[in-house]
Amino acid sequence: MRGGQINLQDIIARSATTVPSPQVRDGGIDPVTKLIDVSRCIGCKACQVACSEWNDLRDDVGECVGVYDNPLDLTPDSFQVMRFNEYENEQGNLEWLIRKDNCMHCAEPGCLEACPAPGAIVQYANGIVDFNSEHCIGCGYCVAGCPFDIPRISKKDSKAYKCTLCSDRVFHGLEPACVKSCPTGSIMFGTKEDMLDLAETRTNFLKSRGYENAGIYDPEGVGGTHVVYVLQHADKPEIYNDLPKDPRISPMVDAWKGVTKPLMSAAVGLAALTGFFHYVTAGPKEISAEDEEAVRADESSEEERQ
Amino acid sequence: MTNHWVDIRNADLILAMGGNPAEAHPVGFRWVMEAKEKNDARLVVVDPRFTRTAAVADYFAEIRTGTDIAFLGGLVNYLIETDRIHHDYVREYTDASLIVGEAFGFEDGLFTGYDETEGKYETDSWNYDYDDEGNALRDPTLQHPRCVFQLMREHYSRYTLDVVSSVCGTPRDKLQRVWEMAGETAVPGRTMTILYALGWTQHSIGSQIIRTAAIIQLLLGNMGMRGGGVNALRGHSNIQGLTDLGLLSDQLPGYLTLPDDDEQAYDDYILERARPPLVPDEVSYWRHYERFHVSLMKAWYGNSATAENDWCYDWLPKLSEKLYDILHTFERMSHGEITGYFCQGFNPLAAFPHKAKVTASLSRLKYLVVIDPLRTETAEFWKNHGEYNDVDPAGIGTEVFRLPTSSFAEEDGSIVNSSRWLQWFWRAAPPPGEARPDTAILAGIFLRLQRLYREEGGAFPDPVLNLHWPYRHPEEPSPEELAREYNGWALEDIVDEERNVICRAGEQVEDYGMLRADGGTACGCWIFAGCWTEDGNQMARRDNSDPYGTGQTLGWAWSWPVNRRILYNRASARPDGTPWAENKAVVWWNGQRWVGTDVPDFPVDSDPTAQLGPFLMNQTGRGQLFARDRLAEGPFPEHYEPFETPIASNPLHPHNPLAKHNPGARVFEQDRENFGTFEEFPHAATSYRLTEHFHYWTMHNRLNAIAQPEKFVEIGESLANELGIEKGDRVRVSSKRGHIDAVAVVTKRIRPLQVAGQTVHQVGIPLHWGFLGETKKSHLTNTLTPSVGDANTQTPEYKSFLVRVDKL
What we know:
The complex is a heterodimer of chains A (306) and B (808).
Chain A: E1 11-14, E2 32-37, H1 46-54, E3 81-88, E4 94-101, H2 110-114, E5 121-124, E6 129-131, H3 141-145, E7 152-153, E8 160-161, H4 167-170, H5 177-181, E9 187-191, H6 192-208, E10 215-217, E11 227-231, H7 251-282, H8 289-305
Parallel strand pairs in A: 2-11
Antiparallel strand pairs in A: 1-5, 2-9, 3-4, 5-6, 7-8, 10-11
Chain B: E1 13-17, H1 21-24, H2 30-38, E2 42-47, H3 52-55, E3 59-62, H4 68-81, H5 87-93, E4 106-107, E5 110-111, E6 114-115, E7 120-121, H6 148-156, H7 161-168, H8 172-183, E8 192-196, H9 198-201, H10 206-219, E9 230-232, H11 239-244, E10 251-252, E11 256-257, H12 266-273, H13 289-301, H14 326-334, E12 340-344, H15 348-351, H16 355-362, E13 367-372, E14 399-404, E15 413-416, E16 421-425, H17 438-456, H18 462-465, H19 479-487, E17 489-490, E18 494-495, E19 501-503, E20 521-522, E21 532-533, E22 536-537, E23 558-559, E24 587-589, E25 594-596, H20 669-673, E26 683-688, H21 702-707, E27 712-716, H22 717-723, E28 730-735, E29 738-747, E30 753-755, E31 758-760, E32 762-766, E33 801-807
Parallel strand pairs in B: 1-2, 1-8, 2-3, 8-9, 12-13, 13-14, 26-32, 27-29
Antiparallel strand pairs in B: 4-5, 6-7, 10-11, 15-16, 16-23, 17-20, 18-19, 21-22, 24-25, 26-33, 27-32, 28-29, 28-33, 30-31
Helix pairs in contact in B: 4-7, 4-8, 4-10, 14-16
Protein name (chain A): Formate dehydrogenase iron-sulfur subunit
Cofactor (chain A): [4Fe-4S] cluster
GO molecular function (chain A): 4 iron, 4 sulfur cluster binding; metal ion binding
């Protein structure tokens, strides 16, 4: 995490951990929420680019497959994508529905639930669900556990990645990068209470403009989310490029928790063992001259400080 | 823009037509969203395609590209015939009541005075009737059969619902609905703003489309009002500044103009431009032309400019052609008439129409200088890039010089935005490597040329040797020095009518009212006077306080002219000086003077009883429904087909071939030969930008390349079905001038139109991508576009041409 300033005492839930999370810091923390008003989105992708810029991500230059969407799907290097859908409504009028797709930061996160690696996925008191990649073992269970199909495993380091809701920015009192970049005010950020208020105002506005089924997407099946949509057609979330109507954590995740956890723990052990054998057979990781240089520079600056 | 970005939020209706602001101006578009939310405004989009703007619109109507005059002419007809006009405004503030001379007429698509062999108009008959003192005759009842109002009414009576629907392909119910919504803003308390961009300018009839919009806003009383106006969303950062500083071939800074070659005498030049009022006592502000001109010459030539030598008038070029525009220049270049070409911040191979002609023309140069921060296709026009630029370098003798410049983020200065605001900015980083600011490069070239003239002599050396060059570092004038020069200063003490000194010698002038025609002031661009006064750099101000809550923020940066935010704002008040409507008030008469939320566009102490017209720059003091001789193709806009049209004739004048296309347009012979016909190229095409890219330079940037990596074209589902094309297929799009290959985006957003009894399919072609940069390599879109321009500006017709689509 950039800056590493997030206070570990703010973690309220931790994957694959039986030790209770810190309880003391319970005063004055409001859960945060990113509100995405789809009806105000022009699909400019400023949020997508801002996300890449803030998170130092540079995906591959892809190709056009006959749609505006690009990148086509989430990747380990693209934490969010814009999804475009041409929808003909009941009156036969065309609507171009453009949805920003990224981690929903569920109150009951399926990824965290499913994750077998202790501390690889954490939930902060403000509601942000964050991947602590240092502890990630790349097993992909978070992918299976996510009802929104968000996490992606990187081929570079076999670790899972997704939107952090700019936890590093938020902990320093800044809004997420996507929110800051949005030119039309389609993406907003604040406490969950305020955002739901705003969402209601927006919903009423849409109803006054003839969108009878306008509404708020904050699905109960995952305990509500910290990314909330205002939809013109809240009765049909699936028309927004398959936004799930009633997302729930897959029953497989619970089954796994009960039955296969010991097996998985063994697998973790196995992974460690594999690493050991890899070390024995392939030898230690080569350290480049540059790395050495960097380490020396670090050491010498440390000496200076002392 | 007559108004400004923030003011859009004050509108009740936003008509986005001839532009796609959400796509091309996403940041400014926030004010449209504010209007919708805070002012309960409706957004209407009229466009050949259902665009990103349409995605958030309240109403969308499709239109065939290039038929906007028919659409808007129909609206004029609708407003008049259903009596949805602002009567008092039209009578008092427009030229509706002025009587037009008997000689003027319009028949079968042509106005009087057409010279068929020359292909242009003699405009003498396009004028009012005058009394013996030179004042235009009036009929305030608007009943005189030859008053502007009645002539206009007759002219547009042909633009009925059926005719317009047949020309535009817009369904009747949609036309009706859009016209109704516009008509609702005829009441004083409601305003419509019109937002347009290159979708109006890049047609052979572009200027007249914008004129039609102006007529509508005058009829509705929406000019000079909060949330009103005709608003050009400029296409490039600082392109407004380019226009203001006169970087067009027939212009001088501040919309002063170069003389024609038959204006060899200085007095003739001034007399033609310092036009007197045509209605008694009106201001006709251009009559002060000489003040601005002489101050400009003093800025350019210093002590060399004297009354005795007519302020160096002989040193100014005299135009033998109306315009030395790009089409004209490349025509001459193609004939080998140009030796060298300097190409600064410009990528003609990619950006000019008919790439094959551009390549052939550049190949005939002796040398080409490209001044740019990036690799451009133009600088590599001679290089073989496979199928995307299939040339033979051995056959091209042009020597190319590349001079790297700093980019916008690497220099200080001001950028003029669409709102006419001059906003000072500061560089974020120094330029890399050997890159230098454009000013340093041009100064370097100038100083070397000057030295050569001094040492070796040459033809006509005076303008070069005597150019006033007072900069501290002559080899690199600073942005601050240039800005102070544009503002202007007094060369001697300036006194007012009561002989009070209002500006001492050496001081910066406060506004252009201080400029003098006797050589007492120097000013590089009169409309910028006030941007850098004795109080310092006004463009650097960042006070966004807004005491009236109207979004005027007079303390934010500086707006030309004189920090005024809404032009013609006197028209926001009734003739008696009270606002037409409280919710739209901009300025008003308080009994002693004009005051309000903005800098009044009026003599501040002119009592309303004097009845001066609010459109001060016009000789009539009024908004011009009748353009007189100011446009090439007529005083009233008329629909003409694009030079490449998918239908056989102009439905308004089916039997007059002279009135099929713009009769006033200039077409070079080799360009005419390169026009295609709808038999061979049946589909109407239009080109445009995408949000993800900016022309041809963001393809050098990885993040933009990721967001939109590969060339595509947009094809409606119906045409795709006909041709057996599925989304993602590769297709070839051909015009008479060449072809491009691209991925097909098959979409519901482009629908077939019923035009003049036939089905017309439109094809959308984004202009981005080329054979350089981080994106996938591709052909250049302007391989396809025709080399013909608007009859007044010569802006090429990028928006309407013919293509054929084939599946690869």
